[in-house]
Amino acid sequence: MKKSTLIVMAVVVVLFLLSWVLKASALQPEQGSYILRGFLVTFAAFLTLAVMSFLYQDNPFYKFAEHLFVGVSAAFWMCMGFWTTIVQNLIPRLSTSLADYFMVPQRPEGLNLFFYTPVILGILLLMRLSPRGGWISRWPLAFIVGTTAGLNFIRYLRSDFIKQISSTFVPLLGTQWEGIGPFLSNLDLSASGQLVLLLSNWVVFLGVFTGLIYFFFSKEHKGAFGVGSRVGIWILMITFGASFGYTVMGRISLLVGRITFLFGTWLELI
Length: 270
Hints:
The protein has a domain at 193-270. The longest helix is centred in the C-terminal third of the chain and has 44 residues, at 223-266. By secondary structure, it is mostly helical. Helix content is 72%, strand content 0%. Helix 2 packs across helix 3 (60-94). The chain has nine helices and no strands.
């Protein structure tokens, strides 16, 4: 290990201990274990800065925070799966004695081989740890992947395909259209008004129609067909940009939360 790396690590350790002492002394003793709370606040600030240090370059502090996050997340979801799926859902249906041991309500439903299927598949998956019996784990893995793909295919077909198509069948004149006279006399510019509803329905219709024109390659994109194709490109770019902007805003909100934690909870400057 380089001498400069050792110096940086020593400085970080000293600053960590100093921050721990100062934060613990700033907390009120009557608020509970102020020493533990000071350590947790300091450690959270250290992990935040360690992750942000990747903006400079890859370093051991970032790797430590990354590995810690992945390990803790895996352990957390493993515990959640054990207590919510196995203990709360499976054990009460398999054994009354185990249900009493884990203190969960029993669900006597008689002998049902269906509930033993996940137990058998789970045991076979553990054969992956065996050097010679690792091939056995491929069968339950193939069953799980195939079943999950089939179930998700139906779900996504309904939500992302059929629902999307049915949402484009909108009334172009609105649901309360009574003619141009009543429309102009009852003109309402509010978000729930008939004019805004009418415009939004036309935007949905033209956006879907021109978007499909862009993906129609059996005819050369010239003339009116080419104009519709170019409009479809603009619709697609606006859609992708809005989706990307929504994702970026979500990430920025996380960044603002961490910065607020650093300058508020940790440094108490705001």
